Amino acid sequence: MKKYILIALITTLVSCKKETETNLDQPKHDETSVTVSGEELFSGKGTCTACHLPDQKVIGPSITEIAKIYKEKNASIVSFLKEEAEPIVDPSQYEVMKANFAITKQMSDEELKALEEYMLSFAK
Ligand code: HEC
């Protein structure tokens, strides 16, 4: 008897897992989808935190430095992340940043806008 309960439980768990997996595959342009915050994108899917910390230069310039320059120049981070605008912060290191366009170009405009807003919020 115990065995059957166990099998039933496993089956339920497996089918639940499948459901979440298919949900993740749904198109991200779905109007009804919940908007992800820029912060989540930055540290999650974007993996931007690997090279950009709030106040300290690591591999890339700090978020504060980028935000300051983009605000001063009234430039668009969204355009930069779509590879439609030239680098203005540290062009000598542009090649390192370029690899990330593979990720950012997969993002919707809404997600890129959220990333931009998150980064600009660091300008003092
Ligand atoms: C492998 C390390 C690395 C990762 C990961 C990374 N960056 Fe960068 N990023 C850099 C470097 C190096 C620069 C400096 C070169 C430059 O200015 O283009 C830079 C510059 C930038 C700039 C300034 C561009 C300019 O005008 O000069 C922005 C905006 C930016 N990154 C956003 C992001 C976002 C958003 C993510 C996540 C999707 C990200 N970065 C992930 C390394 C990285």
Automatic annotation (TrEMBL):
Keywords: Heme, Iron, Metal-binding. The keyword Thylakoid does not apply. It comes from the Bacteria. The keyword Cell inner membrane does not apply. Residues 33-123 form the Cytochrome c domain. Gene3D superfamilies: Cytochrome c-like domain (1.10.760.10). PROSITE patterns: CYTC, PROKAR_LIPOPROTEIN. Pfam families: Cytochrom_C (PF00034). GO terms for molecular function: electron transfer activity; heme binding; metal ion binding. This is Cytochrome c.
